[in-house]
Structures are given as C-alpha cells and as structure tokens.
Amino acid sequence: MDRVATLLVACPDRKGIVASLAQVLYGHGANILDSDQHTDPVAALFFQRIRFDLSTLTTDKVALEHGIKEVGERFQMDWRLAYGHHKRKIAIFASKQEHCLYDLLIRYRAGELACEVAMVISNHPDAEPIARHFDVPFHHIPVTAATKAEAEEKACELIAAANVDLIVLARYMQILSAELVAKFPSRIINIHHSFLPAFVGANPYRQAYVKGVKLIGATSHYVTADLDQGPIIEQATIRCSHRDSVDDLVRKGRDLEKRVLAAAVRYHLEDRILVYAGKTVVFD
Amino acid sequence: MDRVATLLVACPDRKGIVASLAQVLYGHGANILDSDQHTDPVAALFFQRIRFDLSTLTTDKVALEHGIKEVGERFQMDWRLAYGHHKRKIAIFASKQEHCLYDLLIRYRAGELACEVAMVISNHPDAEPIARHFDVPFHHIPVTAATKAEAEEKACELIAAANVDLIVLARYMQILSAELVAKFPSRIINIHHSFLPAFVGANPYRQAYVKGVKLIGATSHYVTADLDQGPIIEQATIRCSHRDSVDDLVRKGRDLEKRVLAAAVRYHLEDRILVYAGKTVVFD
Amino acid sequence: MDRVATLLVACPDRKGIVASLAQVLYGHGANILDSDQHTDPVAALFFQRIRFDLSTLTTDKVALEHGIKEVGERFQMDWRLAYGHHKRKIAIFASKQEHCLYDLLIRYRAGELACEVAMVISNHPDAEPIARHFDVPFHHIPVTAATKAEAEEKACELIAAANVDLIVLARYMQILSAELVAKFPSRIINIHHSFLPAFVGANPYRQAYVKGVKLIGATSHYVTADLDQGPIIEQATIRCSHRDSVDDLVRKGRDLEKRVLAAAVRYHLEDRILVYAGKTVVFD
Amino acid sequence: MDRVATLLVACPDRKGIVASLAQVLYGHGANILDSDQHTDPVAALFFQRIRFDLSTLTTDKVALEHGIKEVGERFQMDWRLAYGHHKRKIAIFASKQEHCLYDLLIRYRAGELACEVAMVISNHPDAEPIARHFDVPFHHIPVTAATKAEAEEKACELIAAANVDLIVLARYMQILSAELVAKFPSRIINIHHSFLPAFVGANPYRQAYVKGVKLIGATSHYVTADLDQGPIIEQATIRCSHRDSVDDLVRKGRDLEKRVLAAAVRYHLEDRILVYAGKTVVFD
After folding, report:
1. Which sequence positions of A are flagged as catalytic?
2. All residues at 6 or more sequence positions from B146 whose CB lies less than 8 Å from its CB, including other chains
3. Do B212 and B103 belong to one domain?
4. How far apart are CA C144 and CA D249, in angstroms?
C-alpha cells in the first residue's frame, strides 16, 4: 500500500487522453496496476482512475507530479493524486443511534478503512464509552437551537486542528448549516434511511410502512445545501412485507444503513468517487 | 388442484376467529392444507388465507358455504371462497412493448398461471402474431384522443362477454378512465417501471439516470383512480451504475418488469392478496 | 412480550389438527396473534407455530398446558411451549475473529435478540475487552490437542452452571466433540463461511477464489456430528468478480456471516425453527 | 456500433503495456471510448479490454492491425480484435424445455444480443414453431445412444456451413462429445440449474430440496470436457424456503436460468470475457 498511488482525473472528452496519461506514468517508470475509465457521451466528459506502483519510479514524486500537471493543463483536467502511505483523517458525527458508529469503528479496527479516525463528535454523551473502547478521541458537543452556531464552530475548530479530510454523519440527527457544508464540498458523507428519492425527510420507515412498499432501502450520499438531495454514492434494498411493523423496518434498515454507509466511506477513502452534474462516478 | 379451495378472510380482530373457521371446516370434513394469518395491531384487523382439501368433505359445497357464511356474519367478515377447478379469465392489455406480454404468455403456457388468458387487447396491431402464436384471441382497438371513450367501451364489451375477472396492463401505454377503473376494484394490475413512490409519471428510467441512483426498480400495483398510487403488490430492484445509459436501464428494467408483473398476477390468481388502507397483505 | 406465548408443533398430518389446537387455546381464553403452518406432503408431516396472548386467559397456565398436552397426545405431537417473559440464556464461543462476536453483542444491546448472553467463551484472550465492554462475563479456555477434552469439560460446566439453552459458534475455530454436540441437539448454531454444500471444510474463500465463482455465500446451521452437514437455517450470497482477491472475499464474507448468523440466532430465540429430515422449517 | 471496435488482450504483466496499447491506438487516430483492465498479481497476468472509435482513424484497419500485432509480439500478447459491424453467428441447442430458448429469441428480437441467430437445433420437434415464430431456421436432429455420433456430425456440418461462432446450450439435455467440445474452446456456453459447485450432475433442484438449502442458484459456464466444471461466467441465486416443493424450485429456477444464460451470451458477444486458469475475467 505504501508504494501505491491513485490518480483521479476528470476532463472534457478528447482523443489522446488515455495515451498521454499512460505515457507520462510510463516515462517516469511507474507501473500501472489498475485503471478504470468512463466517458459520459451525453456530457462529453472523460473520467479515469489509475492506480500505479511507485516502487519502480525512475525519477521522483516531484518530477512525476510535474509531468502529470503538464498533461493536466493540456487537457483541462481536474486531477487529484493520492499516495497510499498518506492516511486521511476522518471525523465521525453520531447521535443516540449507535449502530453505524459501531460498524465504522469495527471495520476501522479490522483494517477495512484506509484512514485514521481522528475523533468521534456527538451531541449526546452516550457514545463516549464506544469511542473509548476503540481508542478514538471523543468530543461531546451538545446542540440546542440557541447554541447551534456555536456548537458547529467548536466542531469546526476540532476538525481543523486535527486536519480532518472527511466528515461522516453516522446517523447524526442534526442538520448541518449551509456554511459548514460549503467548507467541505464532496467531503461530508451522510446515510439516509430510505431508498432516495423516495421518502425524503423525517421518519422514512414510517412513511414506508404507511405506503406499504415491499422493499425498504438506504442511501449514502455527499451532503449538499439541499437536504437529502446530494450526489448518491451507494444504495441497497431489502425485502419487507405486511408482517413488518415500523420497528421491524427499523431493525432491517439498520443492517442496510451500516453496509451502505461503510461502502461509501470506503469508496471515498480509496479515491473511487468523482462527482459531476449532481451525481457520482464510482469506480469499483 | 381440482379438489382444493382457498378461503380469504378479513375482519375486525377478535378472539375466536381462528378456532371458529377451523371448526367449521373440520365439521364439514375439509382438511386444511395450508393456512396463513396476519393481524394488523394498529388497524385492529385480522386477515387469513386457508387452503383446504375438498376431497374429504362429508357434506357438500352448499352446506360448507352456508357454514362459512354463518361464521362470517358472526365476525363481520369480508370473505371470498375460490375453488381450484374454477379457472379465472384474464385479459392482457398491451401496446408496442412486447416483453411483458411474451413473458405472461410463456408462463401461461408453462402452467405457471392458474387462469385462462381470454384475450389480448392492444392499441397497436403488432402484438397480433404473438397472441396467435400462443393461440390466444387478439383484439386490435386503436385509441386516439377522440376515440378513447369509444375504445374503452368496446374493450369493456369484449371483457364482459368473455366474463373476464382480471385485467393485466402489460406495459399498456394508455391511461384508463376513472369509470373503467371503478368497474374493476382490485382487479386491474399494472406494472410501473420504477421503485414507487420514486419516479412517478413518465420516463422513470430517464429520471433515474438524471438522478444518478445506484439501483433501479419496478413495481406492480392495483390500479386506482390515482395514477401510480394504487396498492403495491410486488417490487424488485437491480443494481446500476454510472456506466448504464438510459438504454441500459431500459434493458435491465425489462427483466424486473417481467418478474414483478408476473409475480403479482400469480399472487392474485392464487388468492394471496388482500387490500386494505391503500396497501396489500400478500400471503406467500 | 411478557404476555405472549409461542407454541411450536410437529406431528403426522391428519384432519382436525388446526381446529383442535385453535379450540383448546380459545377454550382457555387465549387470543391467537399469529399462526403459521406448513404441511410436507412428501413426508406427511404437519408443522405449526402459534403465537398467542396470555393476558386474556380465563384459566391459568397449568390448565392451558394440560389442555395442550391432551391434544398433543391425541395427535402424537412433538410440541414446545415458550413464554415470552422467559429469556433464554445463550453462550457465545469465539476465537480470534471478532466480527460475529461484536455483531451479536451489538444486536443484543439494541434489543434485537430476546435472550440473555450469559457468557462469552474463547480459546484466545483477545475477546475479553469486547465482552467487558458489553458487560458480559468472559471465560478464556485455551484449547490444545492435549487439553481439548478437558477444555470442553470446563466449558460444559460453565454452561450447565449458567443454565445455558443455546450455544452460538461465532467463528469459533475449534471442532466440538461428538459428545458435546450430542448434549445440545438443535441447540448449537454455527456459521460456515460458504454457500453450503459448496466449499465444505477449510478455507472456503480460497476455494471460491480458485474456482472463480461469481457469488460467495454464508450458511448458518445447527451443528451435528457431521461437520458442516447440519440442518441449514439461513443462507445469503453476495456478488464477487475477478477483481476480488481472497482478502476481498474475506471482507465481503464478513458482512454475510454477521447477518446470516444473527438471523439464525434470532429465529431460534423466537421459536421459529423446527428440524426434521436433516433440514429446517423456519416460520418467518 | 458500426464504427466501434473492441480489443481484448491477455499477457504476462510488465511495465508499459497500457502506454504501448494506448499509444498505438492514438497514433492511428482511434479514440478510446472505454477501457477496463485487470492484473492478477498471483498469476502475474495482465488483461485489458479497450473499446475505441474507428471513425476518426487517420490510417486504415490494415495499418492499425499491423500496429497492434507489433505491440502484441513485443509483450507476448494473446489478443483479439472485433469490429462492431461484424455480427457473429450463434446456434442455439434446445430440448423440450423452452424457457431459455424463448428468452434468448425475445432478447435477440429486442436487439439485446449483438448477433445473428443462425439456427436452432433440437433433438425434439417441439421447438420448431418457436423458431419459426422468430424467423429463425430450425433443424430437428434426434439423438439416441446409437445415433449420437452421427447426430453430432450432422450438427457440426450445419454449424460449419453457417459459419457459427458460438454454440448456446439452452437447457439442451444431451452431453456433447469431447471431440465436439474440443472444436469450440470457450465458444460453447451452457446453463446449469444450480449454484455450482453445489449440486453438480442430474436433478439439482431435487438435490437442493433434499438438502433443504435456503437459496437456489443457476450458473452459466463455458463447456469443457469435464461436465459442469468449465469456467463460470455468471451466477445468481434466489431465496427459497420449506414451502417450496421441487416444482416450485423448478419454477423459480427458470427465472434464474433465463437471466444467467442471457447475461453470459451477451458478455461473450460483447467481447467482455477472457478465460484463464479455469476461470473467467468478465469486464462489465
């Protein structure tokens, strides 16, 4: 992992992009391990993810980055280069429901998530023993209507001080302000407990029960200023029936929420996601 | 099959219902093969489906029905008794898309659907060779804005003449009038090509593409006066990704539509569905 | 829950069983909440699960049980009556892999499992902090080839002393002796990390990788003297591809194992499972 | 489609492969639409699929193929270049069960399969009206123990005369001889009605019923001399329960078989499959 880098690229579609990128990597001695590409013919956009081995580099990182920059300018690329040895820091926001929090921390401990969980922030004290059990710093920041701005400010300070790259809302029951959201474009992941765009807003399991659907779902998405409208990263559904009470739907939904949120976090940390036109490309 | 009957019951929940029904069947010598029950504690309603063997009857059908009627009155039951030897007649309405039509006719021929397909009605002539291939009568009833009422009337006459019990809209692209719908309460099944309540209305696959969802779905439901709002019978989803064009979604969706519509028709024909409060109990 | 009882019944199929059971419950004033029934026509066996409300009982439990016993003798029934207020005790056996252990304890804490986790037993000390975090007694019982019999004896003593009803092998990496298995017929649940009967034995994920399957699975089953051959309770699969290394399969498999084991434990605790002919009836 | 070509490549892994292939395509003016790559680190093998646009070619096909050949020799590549305008011919072998045959022909007619169905061959006459309905030539070749060799010879002649590229066994109930199989390496696709490697051989649905599995499956694979052991292309599963008789499993299985076989045929026709080490890479 330490010797692997990932290059993510988005640009207007044009001939020669693949060749130019492959050439620059080859020219510096990098060995491509994996590459995945997508062209959106409607939007005329090109997307690529390239994982390559740095251990055979014949120049150095500075020279390599310089070469990529040159190609990037030629093709008007948005690009991002991530080195495997650089573990990104994440902050998990939680409230009273603890299943997603537990799930992320267990996966973190099992080595499934290539990151450092820098902190757990909660508006309730209940999560503290959980964070402690996993040796993760915990901050209790209560939120009331009156103190909301102040609470966000405090959270932002902690996040800035720890150099946090990604915020994960693990069933965090507070709505973030537009200001906070604007600071972390495509860097806040939320889990919504329905198959969006069905059942936006509050109490989706109750809405599903009343409607009598035969499947319930969960959706992980990047947070934007529009509530429950951000780019969708991952979704899953599970069968339900007339036998399921709202409580049963909640129980079944927890399993979906855990998987769908964890998948989104993993995709983000492995640089698999590109956002455009309000939706995502997820290279799997 | 000829010696099997199915009793479907709905009534206010009360002690003694199960015992009374079991007793009346036992008293007439019927052997219960299968019984499934559901109580909605919120609505305080009781639902049951009982399949029983008539071959051991010690009285006769008239006496048995009389006995059930008596219990039914005591418990204010809505009940329906169907005999296995009585094959219900269905009419399939189709337009230009033929995948659901083919699918139903193939299942019909394979013996999966316990019914007689009395006719195929289409506003396009294309389906005629398909109906003919399966030896099913075909009626071409063109529909224009001007002739819509007249066309429906003609369809109704054909249906009435053939004693049709169930209308199946197999991707039929015309909206039925409220009058026609009112004549067949819980006896018209439609397939909608999305995971309702997401993407109601036209072009759901395009809507799904624009939204960038990671699963698409299909929903079969009884038709009510409210478009795409009738009680849901069955739903299924399938994964999609950024790689899928609208055409790919259409192709993937066809597989869902076929399965989800066929399941709903089978459930209906096997007397597995009870409707209440805008939703369904489906005994499986 | 405290006022609810569950009756599980298996017997040779015959007319009048449903009526007799419903009658005896009704006669004592019990209200049937839920009943599910199955007849295996090949084996000529009848199975039923009835959940009923005790709060309206007009006699008492002794009288009710006497009545059921009388019907049971008439129809040669195997039957089991469980009262909702009686929480069964379970022992979880774990080794180094902790995902299933965590999963069960989190569900236990969330109230998903109607039991008391009496203890965690492990042949490794690693699980101790986990058990402690959830306030569950922990016993470290190392196992070597030489001490195996002795270790089992010690485990049996602990289990007997705590009145344990169900043993759950949460990726426990020791094979239980035939003697221990014989003491707990249909009361030891194991999780096997493949879609049985494919890939029995060791290293199923490696076997799956070598074979190049496109789905991997997990299977929970009751433990019998025949390794990996006991009655299957629950199974699930997930897609995989050529991109998945053995490690990826292990990661994906963990999610399956957790869900499939937890489902089996929940079904057992809710008295939904009947075993016959080497397989299970699971009333859902 | 007419202006698109697909290049499939397999070779020992080495630095510079991606760059060299991209360079040769770019040098001839081809525009890469889509590329997918896989490296098996255990086998040290490299695989790639590149779809590119020919309409911008600045040289011609002969020159392009010459260029690819040169790169191919340098890297010891197995490679295959397919032009979109060249529709491959397939022969469908069927017996009495008609669901897979119908399914393939309906998809063919709907434009889902980029091929020409050159003929249907069956050892029973029943499929003739089906083939005729879809305007596909039909050949009835009865097979008995005595005439098997002769029948195969006749089939081979028809196939050779029509220049058939792919044989699809759509529930064809005869085992092909090793000689015939050897003539079409990775060019005969079969559907097996179980989740291989579980339940090889005859009557897999009955085997599944006896075992009491909770999911049944279907598997499409290339045919090799070893029965049911060829490289797996696609698999799917569906839930079943104690309620399902063998007939129910057969009915549920038909839906799986159709989808899983059709997917494999489509992957083959779109040049998405590479075979190595007894398994497949399927670029999706």
Report:
1. 228
2. none
3. yes
4. 45
